[in-house]
Design a protein that fits this description.
Elements (H helix, E strand, L loop, with lengths): L8 H4 L7 E4 L8 H11 L5 E11 H10 L5 H4 L15 H12 L2 E13 L3 H8 L14 H20 L9 E13 L6
Parallel strand pairs: 1-2
Antiparallel strand pairs: 2-4, 3-4
Helix pairs in contact: 2-5, 3-7
Protein name: Methyltransferase domain-containing protein
Organism: Stomoxys calcitrans
Amino acid sequence: MLGGSEINDEHTHHCTVFSYIASICLEIMRKCVKALKNTFDLLSPNGGDCVIVFFAFNTIFNACNELSTSPKWYPYTRGEDNFMLTFENSKDCKAEFSEMMKAAGFENIRVDMESTVYDYETEEGLKENMISVCHALDFIPESRHSEFMDELGDILAQLAAERLNTDPQRTGSILSADVIVAYGQKMSVNKI
């Protein structure tokens, strides 16, 4: 997905065009409308399809936000908004994203959302998999990573328990998320 600062309008006119584009990283884009417009512009003038899959909500981001603003970790992270999902505070992200796609030029839009659970089987398995996506670790000294990850695991279990309405003792290896799957078409400019 091509976002605001990654590509400008000048570059979109010199790129190859595509009849199909799939994207899986929109949840971290700060300029979604620009990213969608760039994607639309990369589709062929003869028409094309676009499928976008991203997290509207994910407990890893919430847990990182909670820890990054705590007095213990704030000196390292400065409470940066680096851990916010684009649609985290949206009241109706399906409708909001549908309108964004429409504004970018897409037609025949369909946006679905599904709550899902990822079970990593053990707390250690969850922590191990979170290391690559836990950007808060970029700000924290390596000597304190284990301590941070232990606290992160506790918060992830609590958040999953709240969303699943169960005991946190049963959710130590679980990540809970809402996934958006969106589809839109660029219609041919050569309509008969």
